[in-house]
Amino acid sequence: MAVRVVNAEDSYLIREGLRLLLQTQGDLELVSSVTNLPALLAAVEEHVPDVVITDIRMPPNNRDEGIEAAELLAGSHPDVGVVVLSQYVEPEFALRLFADGSAGRAYLQKERIGDIRHLRHAIETVRDGGSVLDPLVVDALLHARQRGRTSGLSMLTPRELEVLEHVAAGMSNAAIADELTLTVRAVEKHITAILAKLGIEADDTAVHRRVRAVLLYLSETGA
């Protein structure tokens, strides 16, 4: 069965671009396209989609409606995956999106959606209860923490920092191994060392839990 999608975007060009892009995928069905938060919530009530794709800012206030939608849907429709799109790197919104759980949540830069592979990956991952975090946001979080003198990241080797970035982006051990030209066993050893140094318990069975653990650590003011 096709993955049923509701899209919320107030920019006509982006909204239409997404519609045309989704139409190229026979197994993705756009059931509603709206321009504001109230209309998005109403569309979810009417269609009960598998996934919502939403801009982070839209009417009525153009502040954080995409994050607000994710928070509201977590209570009213917990099985609906949410892909939040942002024009800029805004780590604070990513942290808020994942604060109460990363299952079924994705945070992407809008520039990523021009490549259907990135969009499909996010849609399919949140539909299945996983999570996706744009690597650009991970970079911003890592760099912010590295600037802190007491950051626990100072204990990590350059290779461990590189692996951590990919873990936080929601990649599997096999995908990280392929990306960094390592063996899966080597990646597992790096992750075990990283989580031990950061005081975060490893969970090799759920990538989205590892994403949440890393985000929670990065969001703390002290190491």
Structure description:
With 223 residues, this protein is of the alpha/beta class. It has a 6-stranded parallel β-sheet, sandwiched between helices. The protein folds into 2 domains: 3-133, 3-Layer(aba) Sandwich (Rossmann fold), CATH 3.40.50.2300; 137-219, 3-Layer(aba) Sandwich (Rossmann fold). The radius of gyration is 18 Å and the shape is globular. The protein is 51% helix and 14% strand. Strand 4, helix 4 and strand 5 form a beta-alpha-beta unit. It is built from 10 helices and 6 strands; from the N terminus they run βαβαβαβαβαβααααα. Helix 6 (135-146) packs across helix 7 (158-168).
Strand order of the largest sheet: 2-1-3-4-5-6
Radius of gyration: 18 Å
- Our count of domains comes out at 2
Approximately what portion of the residues adopt beta-strand conformation? Answer: 5-15%
- Can you count the helices? 10
Q: Could you estimate the helical fraction of the residues in percent?
A: 40-55%
Helix vs. strand class: alpha/beta
The overall pLDDT average reads 83
Low-confidence stretches: 202-206
What overall geometry do the principal axes of the alpha carbons give? globular
Q: Got a strand count?
A: 6
